[in-house]
Amino acid sequence: MVQTLRLDAIEDLPRTPASDVKKLGWRGVMKTIGRIGKVVVTNHNEPEAVILSAGEYDAILQALHEAGSRHESALDELRQRFDERLASLQSVDAGDRLRSLMRAPVRLGNKVKAGTGH
């Protein structure tokens, strides 16, 4: 069963003191997890651990996988564009094309052309 991922700040998660975990036992903690899906275990009011249900954990893994896939897809597209440009520079006539461009007069159409350098 895949759950929808809802990311809450640790401050917004339900809390239970470590002493309650000891007192109520694992079964008591799991009842809370079953209702809410996650709980922060605190020690002297400071967060020490977050316990997640298996569904919450799976949702996090799925979201990470999807984010990684989107990143890889964008990277693959960039890589392909770079390879295409590099291939054009490695073609047999690349030098001739560059020299032709450098020899041709620049037509600015009465506009100033500025670069990033001086």
TrEMBL record:
Protein name as it appears in the record: Antitoxin Phd_YefM of type II toxin-antitoxin system
InterPro entries cross-referenced by the UniProt entry: YefM-like_sf
Family: Belongs to the phD/YefM antitoxin family.
Organism: Luteimonas cucumeris
Domain of life: Bacteria
